[in-house]
Amino acid sequence: MKNLKINIVAILLLAVSFTNAQNKEKMNHGDMKMDHSKMKMQDAKAEAILTAYFNLKDALVADDESKAKELGASLEKSLSNFDVSKYTDAQKLELKDIIIDAKEHAEHISKSPIAHQREHFKVLSKDIIDMVAITSASNKLYEQYCPMYEKGSAWLSMNKEVRNPYYGSKMLKCGKVQREIN
Questions:
Q1: CA distances for 144 relative to 65, 126, 141, angstroms
Q2: How confident is the model over 99-147, as pLDDT tens digits?
Q3: Which band of pLDDT confidence, cut at 50, 70 and 90, is reported for residue 17?
Q4: How many domains does the chain have?
Q5: Treating both helix axes as pointing N-terminal to C-terminal, what angle do 65-80 and 44-61 enclose, rounded to 10 degrees?
Q6: What's this model's pTM, rounded to 2 decimal places?
Q7: Which domain holds residue 71?
Q8: Given a cut of 60, is residue 69 above it in pLDDT?
Q9: Which residues, other chains included, contact 139 with Cβ-Cβ below 8 Å and sequence gap of 6+?
Q10: Is residue 33 part of a domain?
Q11: Can you tell me the distance from the alpha carbon of 59 to that of 62, in angstroms, rounded to the nearest whole number?
Q12: CB contact at 8 A, 151 and 141
């Protein structure tokens, strides 16, 4: 009888261990799936913001003040359409702060001469870099850095080749790739 009890307890412990191991494996597999799907499914509205940002950057690289004004307004609209509801509460708070600040700078860019546009683009770039850290991006991005503009300024690019939005044609290739963002 004692052996039967020990055998039943051993079988129950094995069954519980096996069930726990299966559940743990399912959880790990589910977590991997969730992370993988997050990597593949990007936020379309965040991508629209990045597209507007890159177009604005290109206008500044080309020294095109009027195009930069137009694209600043476009970026402001994209930022207004951004939906933070699918993010965590902490991310929502941070994204809301980023968006408020970025909208203000995009608005200034839409109404300013090119020198002032570039000043606002510096802070706007910091906001967009912070946003990408939360939302991620579907393409590889390059954080580039110019040590000369206002004691050092960063921006994002989809291309590894440096095209400086702070100096445009005056110092087109001034800068370096600081890091790659995947």
A1: 22, 11, 9
A2: 999 999 999 999 999 999 999 999 999 999 999 999 988 889 999 999 9
A3: very low
A4: 1
A5: 170
A6: 0.76
A7: 44-181
A8: yes
A9: 158
A10: no
A11: 5
A12: no
